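Morning, I've got a small favour to ask if you have a moment. I owe you a coffee for this, so here goes:

…
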Amino acid sequence: ETARKYLEESLEIAQRLPSPEAIANTQLSLGNLWSALGKTTEALQFYQQAASNTLLSPSKRIQAQVNQLSLLVKTSEIPAAQALWPQIQASLDALPPSHSLVFARINLGQNLISLGVEPKAIATIFIVALEQSRSLGDWRSESFALGSLGNLYEKSAQWSDAEQLTEQALAVAQTHNALYLAYPWQWQLGRIYKQQN
């Protein structure tokens, strides 16, 4: 409630100035808040407003679109989600890699798994994210890209590839003693091992 109050005050101030970039950033934050509270209609409205603001940085605009896509997938608004994801893909492909954009690409791929998009197209998204994470020297996004690709193969019942990629994701996390990254891959490996008896 306190966060909502301050964000709404911030939005009013930004609108009075007017500061379009501050407005868009606050709209993105309000979208995140409403999403965390389970208020999808309000969250979608703020994400759409932020994503349509041309003064918002490209990476923040993509973040708003990816968050919007996640909510559309979560609420089973499939036609809207299917219309949005190619726009996100095109925006990601047009920008140079960065930490936030690699994670946006990974989140896009994870949402596409839920949408039932062709696995080959999703694999390409994860492979690009993996290559970009390595070129940036970003081991966190490398682990997420490997693990997400492993999850895609798990869902496709390609157990050997799923196991190998998940083990690589786990190794990256363990090398950096990142337990918060290790446990999802351990859980994923457990599911894969169970499927292989």
